[in-house]
Amino acid sequence: MSANSSSQQPKRPLTLLQKSLNQRVAVRLKSEIEYKGVMSNVDSYMNLILINAEEYLGSDLLANYGKVVIRGNNVLFIRLIKDF
Amino acid sequence: MSANSSSQQPKRPLTLLQKSLNQRVAVRLKSEIEYKGVMSNVDSYMNLILINAEEYLGSDLLANYGKVVIRGNNVLFIRLIKDF
Amino acid sequence: MSANSSSQQPKRPLTLLQKSLNQRVAVRLKSEIEYKGVMSNVDSYMNLILINAEEYLGSDLLANYGKVVIRGNNVLFIRLIKDF
Amino acid sequence: MSANSSSQQPKRPLTLLQKSLNQRVAVRLKSEIEYKGVMSNVDSYMNLILINAEEYLGSDLLANYGKVVIRGNNVLFIRLIKDF
Amino acid sequence: MSANSSSQQPKRPLTLLQKSLNQRVAVRLKSEIEYKGVMSNVDSYMNLILINAEEYLGSDLLANYGKVVIRGNNVLFIRLIKDF
Amino acid sequence: MSANSSSQQPKRPLTLLQKSLNQRVAVRLKSEIEYKGVMSNVDSYMNLILINAEEYLGSDLLANYGKVVIRGNNVLFIRLIKDF
Amino acid sequence: MSANSSSQQPKRPLTLLQKSLNQRVAVRLKSEIEYKGVMSNVDSYMNLILINAEEYLGSDLLANYGKVVIRGNNVLFIRLIKDF
Fold first, then answer.
1. Contacts F16 to G, Cβ<8 Å
2. So what's the pLDDT on residue B11?
3. Contact between chains at C76 and D73 (C-beta distance less than 8 A)
4. For residue E6, which of A35, C38, D3, D47 sits 20 to 30 Å off, Cα-Cα?
């Protein structure tokens, strides 16, 4: 399974995530909680490192965390905030 | 496992998704939430990239997102809006 | 793993599904929702393509869809409507 | 992994199911719903084909189905009605 | 992965189950329901055959079954009644 | 994947469990129920054998069991009582 | 799959965890319960050993434990307290 990364070709989902390192993302979990921060790294299971993570429920900021490793199987979606 | 793509042969589910890139789709998740947007790419796990994603609960538009990567294991079904 | 398809031999579950392409089926999901339509294709994970899909909760028709790809892990059972 | 099928040896669970084809069974799902019918075939994942399936909740008959393919991961247990 | 079965060595969990065939066991499922009976066989996934199975919720006997095949992924624990 | 077991090196989680056989442990399950007893053996899936198992909900002793095999996928954590 | 650990390269999530042994962490589980303690070791499944573990629900300290092995599949995220 190879992922073509020329500009004409759309990127595979995991390739897009790899190309978005050090961007700001919002990670929605199955529990509805959302974490916003800078995605320092991510692997193929969607385990990811978030820096300066903020924890939100809807628009309520619940907590500020430094560096968290989120286990991929809890992820609902990852939104690329800076990329759009 | 090969997927014959001649016009007489029905397409395998994952092959159909690959042939529907850059079409408008609605992605229903197990949580009943639905995301509509352009499916920029998808892999065999049904991880997918959605562009200009709109988040719906029933007919209520909840939010607009730019580019999201949805983790495949949350997907209930993918509806091809343009294909029909 | 081979599946004998002579008339005397019972078919394996996945073989029966493959032999039922383009038949009308009802797909019951774990969430109790049921989708009726023509099963255009199905793979070994029970991912399947449904054409002219109708969404039911009990006997209430909730919605009509064109072409949907249902992710196999949500499937409770697939009923062969035409085959009986 | 081989399963000895001489009369002295107890049968492995999946071997017992294979030897019980065309018998009447009751399939209890995790959702408490039970399906009774003739088990036409079954595979190692416990995907199974049920013929003349009756759907029960406790002792209430909910529906009659022709031929259904039940996805194995939903199965709680399979009771061999004729075998006892 | 080999399991030493000399008397000094503790048995691996799956080895202990294999050595307990034809003993009376109680199988607690995740749903709190418990099945008591003679464990005729079991495989490495904890799929098991129970003979003369009795279904209990707490101390209430709900039903008597002949021979059931329980799918291993539902098992919480297996208690060895005769072994103690 | 090798696990260094010299005294300076921290032990891998599964290696620590293997080195704790015949110690008293408390096994918390996802359902909040806790089992205390002597861990006679454990495998890499965290399937484990508990001897003289006591079943607790919070501080309430619910039942005494002889020898139980707990299926690993239900385990939340294993606490080493004697090790501390 | 190799993980580059030079100072310019961001670390993979599992590599970051390995480099954080003997640091203080907070482990949030899917059940909302949080365990704080020193992460003595962790494996690729996120099974981890926590020393001097404190159990919290929100800001309430529920219990103190000595040494616990947490099964990785229950982990929501691991927060590096000292690293920030």
1. 41, 49, 67, 69
2. 87
3. no
4. D3
* Angle made by CA atoms F7, F13, F14, in degrees to the nearest 5: 100
Closest-CA residue to F40 (of F27, F22, F52, F55): F22
- What residue ranges define each of the domains in chain C, with the CATH number in brackets? 13-80 (2.30.30.100)
Residue ranges of alpha helices (H) inside C1-84 are 13-18
Does ipTM top 0.85?
A: yes
Q: Which residues of C touch D65 (CB under 8 A)?
A: 79, 84
* Residues, chain E: 84
The whole-angstrom separation of Cα F24 and Cα F51 is 9
Centre a 10 Å sphere on the Cβ of residue C79 and count the other Cβ atoms it contains.
22
Q: Is the pLDDT of residue B83 over 90?
A: no
Nearest to G77 among A21, A40, A71 (CB): A71
> How many Å apart are CA F55 and CA A32, to the nearest integer?
33
Residues of B in contact with C29 (CB under 8 A): 76
Pick among D76, D81, D82 to test the E interface (most E CBs inside 10 A)? D76
pLDDT digits (tens, 9 = 90+) for D4-58: 444 456 789 999 999 999 999 999 999 989 999 999 999 999 999 999 999 999 8
